[in-house]
Amino acid sequence: MRPTFPLGRAVAVAIALAFGAIAITPISASAEEDSRIARGGQLYDKWFAVTGAEKPKDTHKAWPASNTKKKGNATWRCKSCHGWDLRGKDGAYASGSYKTGIGGLRAHLGGDPAKVVAAIGDATHGLGDLIADADKADIALFVTKGQLKMESYIGADKSVKGDAMKGAAYYNTLCAGCHAVDGSMPKDLPKPLGAIAASNPWETLHKIQNGQPAEAMPALRALPMDVSLDILAYMVQKMPKK
Ligand code: HEC
Ligand code: HEC
Question: For the chain, which ranges sit under pLDDT 70?
Answer without folding.
Answer: 1-24, 31
